[in-house]
Amino acid sequence: MNSPVTPQAPVGLPSPSRRPSLPGPAGARTVQAAFAFGLAALNLRIAVASLSPVLTEVQRDEHLSSFGGGALSTVPVVCFGAFAFLAPRLTRRFGPHRLLWCALLALAGGIVLRSVPGVLALFGGTLIAGAAIAVGNVLMPQLIKHDFAGRAGLMLGCYSLALSGGAALAAGVVVPLESVTGWGWRQVLALGAVPALVAALARLPELLVPDRRSPDRRQDRAERAGSDPAAPALRALWRDRTAWAVTLYMGLQSLGYYAILSWLPTLLQDHGMSDSQAGWMLSFSSFPGMAASFAAPWLQQRLRPAFVAPLASGLLCATGFVGLFTSPVSGAYVWMTALGLGQGLAIGLALGYIVARSPDAHHTGQLSTMAQGAGYLIACLGPLGLGLLHSMSGGWSLPVAVLLAVLVAQTAAAFGASRDRHVLAS
């Protein structure tokens, strides 16, 4: 959050009698692989979430307008979409495990470069970090299906939890670290490279001591050689309704998430909340989001009809948006709880649909490329669009109203994404 669909096993879940085991030796190696996977997942939101609490400072020091601040917040999301389409080719050349390790090193380098004085370094480092995260975004669902097929629901929950946890950690500690250390935003943001380097270090045992008995190693070699005839052409998915439903749901929920991630502290600051309190509210929303995203695979598998879960997510997000529209400061904890639950559930469901709607790891990689490539290109309209609407209207009522309209479209896309069928099914 696969074996062929049977009456006893819902789509996306292995049959109990043929549930595959984790690859490689059991015990310590399995724990180490899962730990390394979790550390990598934790880094896929830190670089983005750490920027928004200090965005006002960045705009002041680098002389950026509201549009410039929106553009800076949009660069990573554009990268998530554009560079996602390179991931399949890079995976065939290097293999998913080695490619993820390289992406983590590139992420650390981009974060450091972003902290160098100058607009060029700011945007250039942000672009490199966004490209690295884009590759990781595509690889993670594929690795879940590939390496943890027997525990896909659990690992999807852990993946979603790590994404939310990374965002919460980054949003919550940036401003307090500035106060405690006396550092500026450049030095504090540069610290985001440390967890990326730690995650890369944790993956070294898997690269240096490969388990040649493991079937997935043979599969990696086949993928690098481009010899797998089962991998579907990506172009076939563009004609599939289910694939498009998953893509639209991923893109629209990401649009709302990154719009809030980029502009929520500024919105609250404009209504009189202090910088530190506004950053804390963004961080606080991630805690209910972590619980909801972890529970999403379980809810996806058990709630019937399947549309109930995304509908609940939409209603929770709507409650949060309406609260930001009417009384953003006085009821901030209520609105952030509702919004965190709704958005956490939505990202967990979106990632779960990528895995559940594909019959095997090859299809998962292709669907992940489409859903996250096209989906994040849709999502990039969120941070930039909200900045433009705020500049045009001089307030936040119009931007929040547009987010409510997007939420309606997101919930409609869930009708197709939650259907119990695989992509490219005849």
From TrEMBL:
UniProt entry tagged with the keyword Calcium: no
Pfam families assigned to the protein according to its UniProt record, in alphabetical order: MFS_1
Keyword set includes Metal-binding: no
Bilayer-crossing regions: 33-55, 67-87, 99-116, 122-140, 152-177, 183-204, 242-260, 280-299, 306-326, 332-355, 367-390, 396-417
Keywords: Membrane, Transmembrane, Transmembrane helix
UniProt biased composition (Low complexity): 12-25
UniProt xrefs under InterPro entries: MFS, MFS_Cyanate_Porter, MFS_trans_sf
Region of interest (Disordered), ranges: 1-25
Protein name, entry field: MFS transporter
Taxonomic placement: Bacteria, Bacillati, Actinomycetota, Actinomycetes, Kitasatosporales
